[in-house]
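User: Please predict the structure of the protein below. I'd like the answer in structure-token form so I can feed it into my own downstream comparison script.

Assistant: Understood. Taking the following sequence of 227 residues as input:
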Amino acid sequence: MIKYGLYLLIFFLLSTTHLAQFGIKGGLAVSALQASGEDYTPFLGYEVSWLQDGTSNPVFGLQLGAFYTFNISDEFLFQPELYFVQSGYQFDQTPLYDINYRLGINYLELPLLIEYYLPLGWEFHPAIIAGPYSSVKLSSNKKINLPDEEINGEVSGVNSFDYGIIFGIATEFAAWEGEIIFDLRINWGFANVLSQPSDFINLYDDPGTVKTRAITLMTGYRFNLEL
């Protein structure tokens, strides 16, 4: 909770600036989970114990939200954002069984980004973006597609929080009274996002860690405000 309070304090202090803009963004995220071991059974159950020996693939999801920009200088911006994010992972056993297990996780994500605009003098404005993010889980569900059946249910092994760092590139073009923006960014999670539920059989003393990896392509629009 301390880190969330710090985020709100920074937001409040910087909100007194008269050079501020807000905007909206949306796009497509490609996400996956990276495990320190190779066995997801302690976290997801015996449903994946043999499926994970097939093919593991990232999943596609939406990322939608809003942001607020503060001008630090001509080259640097501070940009808190708030997004609804869909992420997850999937396992396939298709050659003989045609079975797919998809883990879907929905988050409310708060990135705090610094943008550095490259002083190139072009008509569009390329920038480097970087900063931390924190996420709160909204829901976590599984979908198992069998040849003649679909099974849906909640997944209790997904932890409530995630955090990490975002880095990427962005560019913007002046349009109307604001700017059209394009972002390409990577989320590199530091938190262990899966844990072994208490009602699962304890297979290992240390089941390892599982962390989030994602690539997101977004577009949006920034509205300029005079405060």
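That's the full token string. The longest helix spans residues 2-14.
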